[in-house]
Amino acid sequence: MAETTAPIQRALISVSNKSGLVEFCRSLTEEFNVEIISTGGTLKALEEASISAVEISQFTNFPEMMDGRVKTLHPKVHGGILARREQDQGIMKENNILAIDLVVVNLYPFKETISKPDVSLEEAIENIDIGGPSMVRSAAKNNKYVGVVVEPEDYPLILKEMKSKGSLSQEMRSSLATKAFNHTANYDTVISVIYLH
After folding, report:
1. pLDDT tens digits, residue range 82-112?
2. What is the side-by-side order of every strand in the sheet holding 54-55?
3. CA atoms within 13 A of residue 122's CA, in its CB half-sphere
4. What is the CATH number that goes with domain 10-196?
5. Are 28 and 158 in contact (CB under 8 A)?
């Protein structure tokens, strides 16, 4: 795979674990001029820290709906993540799709939810993340162009590489993609075990 190291201009960030979020996003916006797109609680945390971010419904021009069940499942999101930067330029322009270069997502805390002694099946089901794994897998698939981060512990690595190289190397993006696929596989395994019982 040929090395592709365009600078990160736009990041989609939607996390349940807010650890290190504010510091990471502040560095992205202030040091690297990255535009942040965000959702729900993540957006609220950024706004409270006076970090500029675009709400996902403003980015897609389509409202969040069904109590938050549908917010990132949209062609502007997945087209932006999955776009092959050279050959898809025409279709992107035609459909007003903007490239998303970095996806930072960690998933609804399903394992923690089902560990509670009084958890109902309905609560467990509502904590099955759909949009998060979809974005993670899209970004991991398109790691030639897109970085994907599923663990806050990787934030310093991302910033260090951006500072030293101006972007993320293919080696780094491939490593992050491997971690991302493992993350979603483990997540689905936990869910499948619950449904067996």
Report:
1. 988 888 777 778 888 889 999 999 876 666 6
2. 54-55, 35-38, 10-15, 102-106, 147-149
3. 0
4. 3.40.50.1380
5. no
Q: Are strands 54-55 and 35-38 parallel, antiparallel or unpaired?
A: parallel
**For residue 66, what are the contacts with CB-CB under 8 A and spacing of at least 6?**
none
Strands 147-149 and 102-106: parallel
Indicate if the alpha-carbon torsion angle 24, 29, 31, 34 is positive or negative.
positive
Token pair 């729900």: residue: 40
Give the domain ranges of the chain. 10-196
Q: Tell me the per-residue pLDDT of 100-147, one tens digit each, with 9 for 90 and over.
A: 999 999 876 666 656 667 767 776 777 677 777 888 999 999 999 999
Residue given tokens 């592709």 in the structure block: 4
Q: What are phi and psi of 22, to 5 degrees?
A: -60, -45
Contacts of 91 (CB under 8 A, 6+ apart): 79, 97
Q: Extract long-range pairs of 91-98: CB within 8 Å, 24+ residues apart.
A: 98/10, 98/59
Nearest to 81 by CA among 29, 132, 43: 132
Q: Under DSSP, is residue 103 helix (H, G, I), strand (E, B) or coil?
A: strand
CA distance 149 to 134: 13
What's the CA angle centered on 132, arms 75 and 174, to 5 degrees? 90
State residue 3's pLDDT score: 53
Q: 96 vs 15, which has greater pLDDT?
A: 15
